Amino acid sequence: MTTPIEFYFDFTSPYSYLASEMIEPLAARHHRSVVYRPTLLGAAFKVSGQRALTEIPLKGDYSRRDLARCARFYGIPFQIPAPFPVGTVTAARSCLVLQRDDPSLAVPFIHRLFCAYFVQGRNISEGGVVHSVLAETGADAAAVLAAAAQPGNKEALKAAVDESIARGVFGAPFFFVDEEPFWGCDRLPQMERWLASGPF
Amino acid sequence: MTTPIEFYFDFTSPYSYLASEMIEPLAARHHRSVVYRPTLLGAAFKVSGQRALTEIPLKGDYSRRDLARCARFYGIPFQIPAPFPVGTVTAARSCLVLQRDDPSLAVPFIHRLFCAYFVQGRNISEGGVVHSVLAETGADAAAVLAAAAQPGNKEALKAAVDESIARGVFGAPFFFVDEEPFWGCDRLPQMERWLASGPF
Fold first, then answer.
1. In chain A, where are the structural domains located?
2. Residue B158: pLDDT band by 50, 70, 90 thresholds?
3. Contacts for A114-122: CB closer than 8 Å, 24+ residues apart
4. Of A56, A26, A115, whose CA–CA distance to B170 is shortest?
5. Separation between Cα atoms, residue A194 and residue A182, nearest integer Å
6. Residue A8 — φ and ψ, nearest 5°?
7. Residues of A with CB below 8 A from B73's CB?
8. Model confidence band, residue A53 (pLDDT cutoffs 50, 70, 90)
9. To the nearest whole percent, how much of chain B has pLDDT over 90?
10. Would you call the peptide bond into B173 cis, given omega within 30 degrees of 0 as the criterion?
């Protein structure tokens, strides 16, 4: 019995979006499932003293070029959205609700929300956009958003974020394979070797 | 007539060391030469507000694990040295002297100095260690170190560092292929496609 690949992401993280387009086929090649773990990178950035990539002098300019080139390299549709980055609390809370109450819709929602932001350029920090994407996914959007705003669900996201930091998740995408951590799209080849041949 | 691959590095940068072990065969596969450009990352870090990877909370712990795993993935001997990071002014100045006065020894010196630090664990911030590595390379160590300390050579390194920052080099290894920037060992596959098939 193998354990699932754990995939930590933030909906505003462009490299998380790129990874989200690659992780399912990769996992399938190695007979693994994927557990999607939404988190909020802002909280981790406070601990590590980092900030959004595009806001860092020198590195920011490069990262915009790198992102677009990575997307072309992988063959994934992509544009850098504006505004960027955006808050993803409503998106992440909605994701948790679906995972709890309507799990078959959770992964389709994740893909649609990433595409809404990084392909269609819609501002996913807005409740109205999250509502639309929930509806497009086939969920009861109003009910999900109402459940997302419940104190218990807010607490659940807070606990998930705290747990991610406790596990050392300082950026995204961040993966665990049998507790081995892999950070970044560019570690997928190493993760794939790990899955294929075991620890190296 | 093709242009050389430009390779910016700092002798205390472990990913630069890993790249230094891979760049020559990569360049040869595409009939390119390599121009080695020593720099001092500390100056770039002041501009970008970054600091040494291993000193960043959360990211530091991961980076030590990632470095060791990357080295195993690439099949390159490696250990994280102590102390780490170290100052590399004397090393970089000596490299510039060799590149100017005895260019056939410059690349062998670069490889030996990286190995001294990341394989043998010698403290390359010490003038005595740089002296030894120069001698092992077959250089007139005392003459190189004397030339390295000349005001004109100090200015040459300062100009090289300033130029690297002006070109956007915020970390290392950092490469340019026909002015296209690539940062990190993990961008070597993209650089290789660029070299093989042209811009994508």
1. 5-197
2. very high
3. A114/A11, A114/A16, A114/A17, A114/A20, A114/A21, A117/A11, A117/A12, A117/A17, A117/A81, A117/A86, A118/A14, A118/A17, A118/A78, A118/A79, A118/A81, A119/A77, A119/A78, A119/A79, A121/A79, A121/A81, A121/A82, A122/A81
4. A56
5. 10
6. -90, 135
7. 189-190, 193, 200
8. confident
9. 90
10. yes
Going A20 to A89 to A179 to A107, the CA torsion angle's sign is negative
Fold entry, domain A5-197:
Glutaredoxin (3.40.30)
B44 touching A (Cβ < 8 Å): yes
Provide the 8-state DSSP code for B4: P
Can you tell me the distance from the alpha carbon of B11 to that of B91, in angstroms, rounded to the nearest whole number? 7
Question: CA-CA distance, A63 to A54, in Å (whole number)?
Answer: 6
Which helix (H) or strand (E) segment holds residue B161: the answer is helix B151-166
Complete DSSP assignment for B60-103: HHHHHHHHHHHHHHHT------SS-S---HHHHHHHHHHHHH-G
- Is the pLDDT at A54 greater than 90, yes or no? no
Identify all chain B residues contacting A168, using CB atoms and an 8 Å cutoff.
58, 61-62
Complex prediction ipTM: 0.94
Q: Say whether B69 and A190 touch across the interface (CB within 8 A).
A: yes
Q: How far apart are CA B63 and CA A85, in angstroms?
A: 25
Q: What is the pLDDT of residue B1?
A: 65
How far from the centroid of its chain's Cα atoms is residue B116's Cα?
Answer: 13
